Amino acid sequence: MPANSRTTAPPHSRFSSSTIKGSALMLGSALLFASTDIIIKIVGPAFRVWDIAFFRFGGGIILIIIFFGWSGNPFKSDNLRLLIIRGITGALAFLALVGAIQLLPLSSAIVLLYSFPAFAALFSAVIFGERISFLQIVCIIGTLVGVGILLDFSPAGNLLGQAIGLIAGMFAGIAVCLIKKLRETNGPVIIYLYFCLVGGVIALPPFVAGPILPVSARDIFLVVSLVLLFLAAQLLMNQGFKYCKSWEGGLFLSSETLFTSVVGICFMGDPVTWHFWTGGGLIIASVVVLNSTLSRPPPGTEG
User: Is 294 in contact with 248 (CB distance < 8 Å)?
Assistant: First the structure.
């Protein structure tokens, strides 16, 4: 046997089955989340944020009980405390994002939200002791820079709005860290169920104070589609965290901005600029390089 036979792996072994599964699940989730962005854009100002939030969370609870409640008690878990904390952090991330959108241009708010992979990497290292290589740090920075270029980000000068946007990214980063931890002993359904429960409790009071319901067939179709797409996207994301680290999943999810831009250009008449080609190319390149560094799946996810 040659002396270097133990150190030289076949080219195809660089990509394990878990790596491919994680990548596919996260990219599919990003595509579905991009679809929800487009529907929300089409709905426009007809519904308040609280209305959309209540439809998402309330509809998610109903669908989970209908589709998965027959197999047993969907609320049963040994990690109830962590599930509630994840629900709170996710809900706070959503509320902070709404506040940032109200104070900043939409692109600025989204870019600040997509700082969450960096926060996920930080909290993964501090809380769970995950190691991050220099190349992976470069990929994180490259992805964030790509998102900024893609959305033509420029500071709006509103310090309060920028602070709230960063808070949204921070809580989103904590949430994906907790999802990764919860996936060790919990399925994707129960994680989303408790997220919807906590979010629904928070959204219920302002919704009840002045509810706006869909009346036309168009609005009903869009709202139902929104609920279904959110459910599918969230389940894919939660399942994807079984096969990749929290901050790696965040990088894959950042391709949501690219998918949204493609649809905007092809169907909504958005201009094709150098921001799209440069930012989108940098995002994809960073994700590909990151993926090539994954020589084995995270511990405990083999098979």
Answer: yes
